[in-house]
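Example record

One chain of 239 residues, shown exactly as stored in the release files.
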Amino acid sequence: MTKKRLFEFGGYGAAVVLIAFGIAALVMGVNGRDTVNSSLKQEQIVGTPDMTPKAIAGEVAAARAAQTKLFTSLREAGVNLTPSSIDTPSCSVANKTINTGDRARCFAEYMRIHTYGATSGLTYSQMARYIALPNTPLKFTDGLGATSDPTKAVTDPKTKQPVANGRRDIWVTYTALTTALNTSYMASQLALFAVVVGVALLLAGIGFGILAFATFRLPAIIAKAKAGETPVPKGVQPA
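Predicted structure tokens for this chain:
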């Protein structure tokens, strides 16, 4: 009887612990998603009208054409660079407030298209560091008038240092913003995972409680009912 009681109360204890953790995970998950959504809403970001697969198609085609032309010229000059793919997003956030993780991720995908359009398909790592001198051979540039060779760069008369390629700042800004947006998406997904885990723990706890009751307590109740000591619980048919 001691072992039986030990297992019975162990089952109830496990049920209580699982239910408690399930409720905690649910609360944390819901609060996490609310925090992400509220933080995004405070930034007042709204998708531009071209942020639909159909509306952005022209810009994607133009960016791909510019990229193909640029990389063809670079290869002919002896520069071996591999172009990154420019893909059309499948989602849409045109004229929508960016207030959820999913919308934040979608907005970041369209930002990448805009950035490619401004850099003719070059990524940050493919862009040269300095503004190149006029008539610098193409093979020493990134194809957009910049070079990573300080001896072929324009020099600032005041600092006597090569002039930085300001076009690279486009990618710096893009990377900073999209990292924040994608982090919001990741946080939102983690919060959703916490909600799912919370529901699973809650159901498991309830199941443990029912199992412990059905295994250790219910047979005794039925036995007493059959013996006429107590009424049969409603819904329970004695064997």
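Notes: The mean pLDDT is 88.
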